[in-house]
Design a protein that fits this description.
Blueprint: H1 3-16, H2 27-37, H3 41-59
């Protein structure tokens, strides 16, 4: 982890806290929100690959419709 990443996380975590509210997020919740907003390069690559597979399936007609 770089100093810039640590500073960025600190700023993000501080922005998530509302000291006037009794139901502020837990440490784990703040970290989860950070990971969603700042995925690792591996997570980003996996997500993009999954999206590409889904788009290719759609274009090839390999989709099914699930009615509720």
């Amino acid at each position: 982890m770089t100093r810039q990443e640590i500073d960025s996380f600190h700023q993000f975590a501080t922005s998530q806290l509302n000291f006037d509210e009794p139901d502020e997020p837990s440490r784990d919740e703040v970290f989860d929100l950070w990971r969603i907003a700042n995925p690792s390069s591996t997570e980003m690559s996996e997500s993009l690959a999954s999206l590409r597979r889904g788009l290719a399936d759609t274009e090839a007609g390999r989709v099914s419709r699930h009615e509720r």
